[in-house]
Amino acid sequence: MGLLIDILDYGLLTINLYVLLRIRLSKEEAFKTPFFYWFFMTGMASSLSVVGFIIAVRFLFPVEYSWGFKFGYMLNSATITFATIGKTLIAFHRWSVMRTTTFIEDIWSPRVTYILTAISTFLSFGACTPVFWCGMTYKVVGNVTVVLYIDDACNVTQKSRSSAVYFLYVIFSVVMTVLTSREFIKLSKLAEDSTKALIMSNQRNMFIIVSICTITQMVKATHQFCWVFVAAFGATDLNLFLQKTYDVTHYLATYSATASLVIFNKKVRRLMYSTRIRAPQASSQKVCGK
After folding, report:
1. Could you tell me the sign of the dihedral formed by the alpha carbons of 125, 127, 130, 134, in that order?
2. Which residues, including other chains, have CB under 8 Å from residue 217's CB and lie 6 or more apart?
3. CA 120 to mean position of chain CA atoms
4. Which contiguous run of DSSP H or E holds residue 144?
5. What is the pLDDT of residues 21-71, one digit of tens each?
6. CB 27 within 8 A of CB 278
7. The Cα angle at residue 189 between residues 187 and 193, in degrees rounded to 5
């Protein structure tokens, strides 16, 4: 079982990084938009969250090296928060694009994008800083006392914070999806017949990708809230269930965006099996293709 978990951890992480780097290194014009910038940033943050998860969960830290656990925990927590904020900005970006009549993707200047990146980074890492001063719980493994987890008080605080971030994301994404759908329906009536099918296909795929992310984040949010309940009331049976199912919810929330993009974006699929590291730049409009 341990070998299977290792294969999943490192295998999925490698595949995710491969997809992200192929998109980032591509000269394809469609991949140079704010949508794909944020997709890359949130994907890299999700990958770093896996690294933090592996450090904190897969390794044992003696008492004197408890800082190693805190480092892994904080890296996991901060990058998950950054990825969630990034997915929120993606949903907002899709709505902003649909409000225009030209469907140009570059509606945010590089300056605005970098400012949003700096704010997201500050909020993400600032929110988990208190973990540095948290107490720890321990267990004995082979006559050696090792770190088990952060103490219950910090656990309740951190899980409550992460749950709040997840639920805010879900609510905001649902609102943005509804607004985007309304704009799409309104603007599609104005589109010419030659472009209507392409617009509807593109936006339908974007809607599916955002919806999948919203659903998986909702599952993750529910899981996080259950951890709060466990820490607050000491529900042992529920604690064991959450430990057994954590990997599943973690994989869903981390890799669903990448998987859905590969499935529903034809240009990304072509890029994955292309033998060229940098695909030749295409002369096309900056509209996210199917």
Report:
1. negative
2. 84, 87, 166, 169, 170, 173, 253
3. 13
4. strand 144-150
5. 999 988 888 888 888 999 999 999 989 998 998 899 888 999 999 999 999
6. yes
7. 110
Q: Give residue-wise pLDDT tens across range 153-186.
A: 888 888 888 888 888 888 888 888 888 878 777 7
d(Cα 165, Cα 13) in Å, to the nearest integer?
24
- What span, in angstroms and rounded, lies between the C-alpha atoms of 40 and 190? 33
What Å distances lie between residue 39 and 72, 83, 90, 114, 260, CA to CA?
23, 9, 8, 14, 12
CA distances from 51 to 40, 247, 257, 290 (A): 17, 13, 18, 31
Task: Specify the DSSP class assigned to residue 62.
Answer: B
Q: Cα 49 vs. chain centroid, distance in angstroms?
A: 9
pLDDT value at 136 more than 80:
yes
Residue keyed to tokens 């730049």: 281
Query: In 3D, which of 24, 36, 29 has the Cα closest to residue 281?
Result: 29
Furthest C-alpha separation in the chain: 74
The contacts of residue 83 (CB under 8 Å, 6+ apart) are 42, 43, 45, 46, 49
Supply the mean pLDDT for the chain: 82
pLDDT tops 90 at residue 122: yes
CB of 76 closer than 8 Å to CB of 56:
yes
What's the pLDDT band for 17 if we cut at 50, 70, 90? Answer: very high
223: its two tokens: 């899981």
The residue assigned the tokens 């901060």 is 78
Alpha-helix residue ranges (DSSP H) falling in 129-265: 152-188, 193-233, 236-264
